[in-house]
Amino acid sequence: MSDTTQQNPEEQQPQADPVFTLHMAAMREMQEPRDGIAPTPVSYIICCFLALLAGGWYMGYYGGEWTANGLSERPIAGIPPTAPPQDPMVLGKEVFGACIQCHQESGLGVAGTYPPLARSEYVLGDKRRLVAILLKGINGELVVDGKVYNSQMPAWEIREDEEIAAVLTYIRASWGNKADPVPISLVTAVRKETAGKGEWRSAALDEFAATAPAAPAAPATPAATETPAAAPVK
Ligand code: HEC
């Protein structure tokens, strides 16, 4: 009876076989885990990359204190100082640490080798000459407080103007020395004036001090421009 309705059972079987469809579904949806290394999903790689990028940006943007500047007591550039401008006497004493090995903490130097800074006419006299000595260093015979020295002091021009002004202000007001402070602007000016010069010899230093605008009692605001091209040298 039922034979008459099913005309061709072989033709329909491939699509309709429940075992076959079940297997197709199982193969499609439940892949067998495979041995060995599976490739990392691209989405995972992108996520890691973005996380690193965001972390790097965050540290770069907010990690200001991790630069060398953050460890410096005196910030170099860019980062504003936490304290107001330093007292030159405080900064000067700090910078003077570099001078102690020769000129001694007492400022008296070492007899016969390192001249004293206390009661020295070079320290107490013309500020412009004093700045020039520090910037360029000095070599050869030099008479300080009546005694002859014949040695060499290195140049200090790698120090900032502020540091040089401060240390000179400090030595002019220590060990009984009483002379007015050295303004930073003077250091800047003398640095320009002596650019390209080598270390001083006593005679060249005297000449330098005599020829140009020496101002032992300079006004509080020294003129910034002196029109140096005005007088042609014969
Ligand atoms: C390596 C040793 C040495 C160091 C460090 C040194 N000086 Fe000198 N300084 C000398 C010598 C030596 C002379 C004399 C040079 C000569 O005989 O021509 C001199 C000369 C001077 C003079 C002129 C002469 C005088 O006694 O007044 C001044 C000012 C001076 N130094 C200041 C300083 C200051 C400030 C520092 C620190 C920033 C310093 N020196 C660091 C060795 C040194």
Explain the overall architecture.
The chain is mainly alpha-helical and 234 residues long. It has two domains: 40-83, no CATH class; 88-214, Cytochrome c-like domain (Cytochrome Bc1 Complex, Chain D, domain 2). Helix content is 44%, strand content 6%. It contains eleven helices and two strands. The chain has helices at residues 9-16, 18-29, 42-62, 68-71, 88-96, 100-103, 121-124, 127-136, 161-171, 184-193, 202-211, and strands at residues 138-144, 147-153. Helix 5 crosses helix 9. The radius of gyration is 40 Å and the shape is rod-shaped. Heme C (HEC) binds next to helix 6, helix 7, helix 8, strand 1 and strand 2. Heme C (HEC) binds at residues 98-99, 101-103, 114-117, 120, 122-123, 130, 133-134, 138-140, 142, 144, 149-153, 156, 167, 171.
